[in-house]
User: Which sequence fits this backbone?
């Protein structure tokens, strides 16, 4: 999508979210409390939380963009990259695990051909193994676009994926304002707050931990960092900051 | 068997989401009675007398929590904590979706009791349906004049705001929840000051669990003695227990506290055919395991604490003799590592490296010393963090390593790599 088209598109998204945002802000004694609700509103319309959405939120709430980005990055339900039409999230926690969740997860991976935090090539499925969903009485369970599916079996998974491919699945697909890429996981900060955590514990390659020397871990620590060009928001921040600095200097010079 | 129907009454039989159905069964009568005939202090007193202890995890006496509020004229807030995410717990999820008016009525009574005019409910981000259901219930209640200005013709006004989280277990910790509600990262605050003194927007605030608040209409209706009489003296009342794992009928069961774990197992229809229960985690992912010899213990706050574990949120997971406790430990350690907010080094790094160590053990590359390291690292993490999350790995991990050490050693024994020392 060209930048101009994207901008036009975003204007219509803003037109839809703006009145909601005003209502949301009015519900709280302090406007900043509306930060999460506004990001939810954007994600409902866009299918993800784009850098432009965070920018608009920052302006409406009169907080720096860095505040919105830092807050959004803390929460795993805000997708800061475009995702597929169906967000598949099976539970990997204790009660599901002892009730066969590992088999269900392995089956999903095999059927979808993708792993944790990845999107299928056709843009239909994004996949994430998540923590306890508070439905342990009907394990193994999962969410599809945040709607619950209980008592999972391989047959149920087959039927679900078929219905999604055929466009007949009961849960509506997520809006697709931007085509998704392969990885929607912003490795450097999605749900992980530990600098040491990066690139070490790769859930798509658990066998990779088998090297007892620890060398492999260190190797990953050093090399699997996310390249700077893959971080659009940080890069934009730097560029923005540089532009503001230049403008400030010019102003000063003209004084 | 002592299953009771108090908070769960009508669930699964009636559509309690409908205001008329809820009201036809006496719903909102206690709310009306509170506003029109009772002083807030009376309700605080009554709640303290009932002995009700918080149902979210910490088990703190609710009445006493309210009494900590300073006696000043600053604005104050009531926050209902519906960020239920403790592994194994699914009671608030049920209450929210099945009986939202009962939750709302409890919230309103609690808000009135502490002299607040504004209540918030923080709903876990994943509970999309629950959020929808509660928002509709609130709209119905508002239209019926049960929420808003000049309630029942009195000067009392109460506003309620529904707030949705966005996927962070730590926001169930009350100060992290308040930060999140203020539009910040969900990082716990240093305590003191406690929320009762300095909470939401720096004002006096009470954070109560969904089930705690939903119990209030029943205490008002039946009197504090009715509640205080049930179960052990210092841990009285009814409690919804989320039973899952290797039982034939996993579900939420409402029981009098003081029921034995064995009775609870029978209520859930016992172990699967031909299997035997070898362990039970009695209070959510953060609690230490108990074992078959503990099944006759009374299930209440104090007995669990006296046995080195806790009642927590009331999530009981039973494990039979097919359980791989190395995988079970890994699932919980990975969970706490994933959910660490990252503020405190012992929790952020400790949890993460423990998860990696367990991955290495499971992958067959573990060292014999790794098993001992699991226990020592998790112990070293404990007590050094701002909030209890960093202390939550040790109880389960240490208890299962101690009991099922052979399972851990067997994985290490499979190692194909010999390490020269």
Assistant:
């Amino acid at each position: 999508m060209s930048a101009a088209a994207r901008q036009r598109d975003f204007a219509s998204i803003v037109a839809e979210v703006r009145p909601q945002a005003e209502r949301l802000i009015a519900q709280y004694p302090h406007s900043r409390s509306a930060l999460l609700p506004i990001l939810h509103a954007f994600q409902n319309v866009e299918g993800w939380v784009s850098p432009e959405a965070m920018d608009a939120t920052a302006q409406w709430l009169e907080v720096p963009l860095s505040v919105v980005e830092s807050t959004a990055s803390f929460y795993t339900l805000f997708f800061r990259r475009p995702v597929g039409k169906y967000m598949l999230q099976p539970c990997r926690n204790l009660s599901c695990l002892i009730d066969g969740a590992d088999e269900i997860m392995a089956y999903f991976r095999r059927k979808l051909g993708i792993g944790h935090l990845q999107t299928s090539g056709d843009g239909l499925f994004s996949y994430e193994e998540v923590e306890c969903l508070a439905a342990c009485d009907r394990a193994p369970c999962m969410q599809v676009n945040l709607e619950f599916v209980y008592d999972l079996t391989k047959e149920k998974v087959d039927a679900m994926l078929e219905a999604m491919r055929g466009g007949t699945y009961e849960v509506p697909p997520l809006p697709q304002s931007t085509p998704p890429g392969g990885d929607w996981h912003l490795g450097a900060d999605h749900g992980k707050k530990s600098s040491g955590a990066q690139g070490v514990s790769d859930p798509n390659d658990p066998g990779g931990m088998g090297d007892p020397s620890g060398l492999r871990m260190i190797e990953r620590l050093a090399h699997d960092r996310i390249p700077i060009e893959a971080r659009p928001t940080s890069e934009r921040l730097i560029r923005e900051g540089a532009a503001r600095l230049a403008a400030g200097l010019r102003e000063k010079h003209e004084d | 068997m002592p299953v009771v129907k108090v908070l769960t009454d009508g669930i699964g039989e009636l559509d309690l989401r409908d205001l008329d159905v809820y009201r036809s069964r006496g719903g909102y009568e206690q709310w009306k009675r509170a506003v029109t005939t009772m002083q807030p202090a009376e309700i605080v007193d009554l709640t303290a007398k009932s002995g009700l202890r918080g149902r979210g995890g910490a088990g703190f006496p609710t009445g006493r929590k309210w009494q900590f509020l300073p006696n000043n004229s600053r604005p104050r807030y009531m926050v209902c904590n519906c960020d239920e995410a403790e592994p194994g717990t699914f009671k608030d999820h049920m209450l929210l979706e099945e009986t939202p008016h009962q939750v709302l009525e409890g919230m309103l009574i609690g808000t009135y009791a502490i002299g607040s005019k504004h209540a918030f409910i923080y709903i876990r981000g994943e509970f999309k349906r629950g959020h929808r259901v509660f928002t509709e219930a609130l709209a119905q209640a508002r239209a019926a004049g049960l929420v808003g200005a000049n309630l029942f013709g009195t000067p009392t006004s109460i506003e309620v705001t529904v707030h949705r989280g966005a996927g962070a277990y730590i926001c169930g910790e009350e100060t992290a929840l308040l930060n999140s509600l203020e539009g910040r990262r969900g990082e716990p605050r240093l305590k003191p000051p406690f929320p009762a003194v300095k909470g939401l927007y720096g004002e006096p605030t009470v954070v109560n669990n969904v089930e705690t608040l939903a119990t209030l209409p029943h205490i008002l209706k039946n009197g504090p003695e009715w509640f205080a009489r049930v179960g052990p003296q210092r841990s009285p009342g009814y409690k919804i227990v989320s039973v899952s794992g290797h039982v034939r009928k996993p579900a939420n069961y409402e029981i009098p506290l003081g029921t034995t774990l064995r009775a609870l197992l029978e209520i859930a229809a016992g172990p699967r055919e031909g299997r035997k229960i070898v362990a039970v985690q009695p209070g959510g992912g953060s609690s230490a395991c108990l074992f078959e010899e503990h099944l006759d213990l009374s299930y209440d706050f104090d007995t669990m604490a006296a046995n080195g574990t806790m009642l927590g949120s009331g999530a009981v997971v039973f494990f039979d003799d097919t359980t791989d406790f190395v995988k079970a430990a890994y699932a919980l350690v990975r969970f706490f590592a994933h959910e660490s907010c990252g503020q405190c080094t012992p929790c952020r790094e400790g949890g993460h490296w423990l998860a990696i160590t367990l991955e290495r053990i499971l992958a067959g590359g573990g060292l014999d010393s790794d098993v001992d390291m699991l226990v020592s690292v998790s112990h070293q993490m404990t007590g050094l963090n701002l909030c209890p999350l960093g202390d939550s790995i040790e109880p389960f991990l240490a208890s299962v390593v101690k009991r099922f050490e052979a399972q851990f050693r067997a994985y290490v024994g499979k190692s194909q790599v010999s390490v020269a020392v």
Summary: Helices of chain A lie at 3-26, 35-46, 51-61, 65-72, 94-112, 154-165, 215-223, 232-254. The longest helix of chain A spans residues 3-26. The first strand of chain A starts at residue 86 and ends at 90. Chain A is about 45% helix and 5% strand.
